[in-house]
Design brief:
2 domains, four-stranded antiparallel β-sheet, single chain, 162 residues, 2 helices, 9 strands
Length: 162
């Protein structure tokens, strides 16, 4: 029985992600393969959909439109926040990415600009609105352990939580 990428399998892949102009934004080249549990929201939806059914050794290339990647940009996600909301000793610089707690859990945002006592922040994902290209090779597939399924993410090479 040959193993293939499907829900509740732990898959390891080597990948390169690039923008449509060819600029690489992320790659596993020279690093350990990326490990993820299929069907548990660890990866963007389109990435998992494109990899379903792939076998070990198989290479796939695909392009994801924003709807299948990080969504479209939402202008209402750009907000002005009083500078007093940030730690006094924090050096705020446009383009920096910060994390915060929200009522829906942790969120990331980027600093757009600082204007006196007001900071403009953007809660859109940095890649929202972008079309992304991926080149992916499946290097391993295994059954998920009970712990991995319970926790909703892969725990490393043999399913051991590090």
């Amino acid at each position: 029985m040959s193993s293939k990428v499907e829900v509740n399998k732990v898959v390891s892949v080597h990948y390169t992600g690039s923008y449509t102009d060819g600029e690489v934004f992320d790659t596993s080249e020279g690093r350990e393969p990326l490990l993820f549990l299929v069907g548990h929201g660890q990866m963007i939806t389109g990435f998992e959909q494109e990899m379903l059914g792939a076998k070990i050794g198989e290479k796939r290339e695909f392009t994801l439109t924003p709807e299948k990647a990080y969504g479209m940009r939402d202008e209402s996600a750009i907000q002005k926040v009083p500078k007093s909301q940030f730690p006094d000793d924090m050096q705020l610089v446009p383009g920096m990415v910060l994390g915060a707690q929200s009522d829906r859990g942790p969120v990331q945002f980027s600093v757009v600009s600082i204007d006196g006592d007001e900071v403009t922040v953007d809660f859109n994902h940095q890649m929202a609105g972008m079309t992304l290209r991926f080149s992916v090779e499946v290097v391993g597939i295994r059954e998920a352990t009970r712990d991995e399924l319970a926790h909703g993410h892969a725990h490393g090479v043999g399913g051991i939580n590090h």
